[in-house]
């Protein structure tokens, strides 16, 4: 082989080497792109589900906090109900005494 043939062959290899590398890169991208696109879609779906779950948990925490904060009102209602029951018992007792006193003043056969 002559020097010119070796030189020509070397030039041919050097000239085509970048295109071979680009071809390999293109093949790699063509094979891996669908899988990467599927991963991206899956990740977006998981993100949406996660956001929904986070919203649900935050809403539940807010509801529990509101329930905890409302315990003051329930205690007040409990106290007012106990007070109302005590007053009703006093009224019933007073009415009972009044009825007994009226019967004592006016016996059933005295009219």
From TrEMBL:
Compartments in which it is found: Lysosome membrane
Primary location recorded for the protein, binned into one broad class: membrane
InterPro entries: BORCS8
Taxonomy, superkingdom: Eukaryota
UniProt keyword terms in alphabetical order: Lysosome, Membrane
GO cellular component labels: BORC complex; lysosomal membrane
Family that this chain belongs to: Belongs to the BORCS8 family.
Protein name: BLOC-1 related complex subunit 8
High-level lineage: Eukaryota, Metazoa, Chordata, Craniata, Vertebrata
């Amino acid at each position: 082989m002559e020097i010119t043939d070796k030189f020509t062959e070397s030039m041919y290899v050097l000239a085509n080497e970048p295109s071979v590398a680009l071809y390999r890169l293109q093949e790699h991208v063509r094979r891996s792109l669908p899988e990467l696109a599927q991963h991206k879609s899956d990740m977006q779906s998981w993100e949406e589900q996660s956001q929904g779950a986070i919203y649900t948990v935050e809403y539940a925490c807010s509801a529990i906090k509101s329930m905890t904060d409302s315990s003051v009102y329930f205690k007040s209602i409990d106290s007012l109900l106990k007070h109302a029951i005590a007053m009703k018992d006093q009224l019933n007792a007073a009415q009972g005494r009044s009825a007994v006193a009226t019967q004592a003043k006016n016996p059933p056969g005295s009219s």
